[in-house]
Amino acid sequence: MTSTHLGAPHPAAAEEPLRPAANVRPRARRFRDWATAFTFTVPALILFGLLVLAPILFALYVSFFNWGGFGSPSDFAGTDNFTRLFDDPVFLGDLWRGLVLVVLSIALQLPFALAMAVLLNQRLRGRAVYRMLFFAPYVLSEVITGVLFVMIFAPDEGLADKSLGSIGLDGVGGLWFAGQDTVLPTLFLVMMWKYFGFHMMLYLAGLQGIPSELHDAARIDGAGTWQRFRYITLPLLGPTIRMTVFLSVIGSIQLFDLVWIVTQGGPDHHSETMAVTLFQFGFKRYQVGYASAISIAMFLISLVFALGYQRLVLRRDTEGALTTMRANR
Amino acid sequence: MTAALRRGLRSMPLYATVWLVGIVMVTPLLYALISGFKSNDQLSSNTFGLPSPWVTENYTGILGDSAFWRSLGSSTVIALGSTALTVGAAALAAFALARFAFRGRETLFTLFTVGLMFPFAVAILPLFIMLRTFGLLDNPWGVILPQAAFGLPVTVVILRAFFREIPGELEEAATIDGCSAFGFFWRILLPMARPALGTVSVLAVVGSWNNFLLPLLVFSDPSWWTIPVGVQQFQGQYSSDVARVCAYLVLAMAPALAFYAVAERQLIGGITLGATKG
């Protein structure tokens, strides 16, 4: 069996086709190797195929029907459910609101997380405590976070309005989650509270990978703090930053729990996301065909974005991690 | 001015910034903790101060209620079940994907990595219909199995990377000594991969613990409600009793925060690996 196992392959060798070696081996033995390897993957394949892939194929099938979710789908609707998507102001609004959240995240949350990472990467007393504290909300469920902030942002009675009132800023706060124009920014504040620590941790890990010699050399050459940040830290953190942008977008596409707890998409759809619309149609209004079309749209948006982003942006970082794995860390 | 003092002054804004952020981060949590010790009258008349007197009924009432402990129990059972299943299945698959050469290996691996980036919500509707068809509603397996399946991608990706780093000589030596492929996996690879197994287990536990959508749909019967579903129901029931909801929140977040305190290293290692490997 010795020859059947790959050792830890050389990074380049991992991508080579394996056929030449296989041709040398007798056919029976080759089959036995394949069978052994395949057996190991069976439990994962069954789970994954049955509960991840099959549902998506099923959703694809159902999306071509008008179906209430009971019995078997029979009222074929062609592509009606998909054309309806483009006329549905709520769904188009979902896309817009998703985009707004992504832009806010890239413009505010990620730079803030980066700034905190740079600060906590200094020799600072108690930095381990800050690091732990900033990341802590990440481990709380979105449900707990949502309920907590519903109370804090309760108009007039909540901690937010009372605090503003106590420093003479009555009326600066106001409706928060209850206002059509304020609900999305307020939601974003909560998301930032919960998730900036996550991005900060990724940046911190990236920062620790930057050799301090680079900073020392630049300092000797007379580079200031900003210059060192701009020309050393930022470029070397590039892969991490591009990855956090990716994760922000994927996170925004699947945002559900927090919105469902806090507003259920209201007031008047002003905080609704794709997943919330999907839930409304699928589980409240029993338009399962249309809800399935939404889920297929979500899947395609994620897939197209992920593939495009891998190809155009992450390519140089991971050498196309989607198709091949880099063997070295 | 001494050098030390000058350095101290220069880092003042730095400390002020992290202090301020720290206060913003901790205030909501402290607010919930302290409000839980107040009556609702105190809460509106004395929002910022310490409770006087300290009211403990909110906390003791919840702790004396079996519903809270039951949801703690079902969250634990479901988290452990999902984790065991996902880590077990993923470890076997990652072993095959890391250390065997077979045709279709990269395709198989790509299949798993694709799973990394598409949202759980996409599959929830057909998943629900499938679970209903197979009679898995109001059954813990109805949550455990899908969670295990959706946990596979990140687990496979991290474990495969780890398995690849274990030197091939070790495997050759084991094989020469008469070790089968499974024997090598079970007796040598897994014990060596303990840190990686810890990391992926922690990720799976946290993911399961915080999952809301699936248990919400699967369990209509309160006896299996997990903590997030319990929190939502409790808030619906006592929405006007803010102090009591605060107490419930604090008790509901305590296990997660305690777990974080214990497993901080694995969790942070896990999210970093998950992000860089995906």
UniProtKB/TrEMBL annotation, chain A:
Signal peptide: none annotated. Pfam families: BPD_transp_1 (PF00528). It comes from the Bacteria. The keyword Aminoacyl-tRNA synthetase does not apply. InterPro entries: ABC_transporter_permease, MetI-like, MetI-like_sf. It is a multi-pass membrane protein. GO terms for cellular component: plasma membrane. Residues 95-309 form the ABC transmembrane type-1 domain. Belongs to the binding-protein-dependent transport system permease family. This is Sugar ABC transporter permease. It comes from Streptomyces coryli.
UniProtKB/TrEMBL annotation, chain B:
The chain crosses the membrane at residues 12-34, 77-97, 109-131, 143-163, 196-219, 242-263. InterPro entries: MetI-like, MetI-like_sf. GO terms for cellular component: plasma membrane. The keyword rRNA processing does not apply. GO terms for biological process: transmembrane transport. It is found in: Cell membrane. Belongs to the binding-protein-dependent transport system permease family. Its main location: membrane. Pfam families: BPD_transp_1. CDD domains: TM_PBP2. Keywords: Cell membrane, Membrane, Transmembrane, Transmembrane helix, Transport. Residues 72-263 form the ABC transmembrane type-1 domain. PANTHER family: ABC TRANSPORTER PERMEASE PROTEIN MG189-RELATED (PTHR43744:SF12), ABC TRANSPORTER PERMEASE PROTEIN MG189-RELATED-RELATED (PTHR43744). It is a multi-pass membrane protein. PROSITE patterns: ABC_TM1. This is Carbohydrate ABC transporter permease.
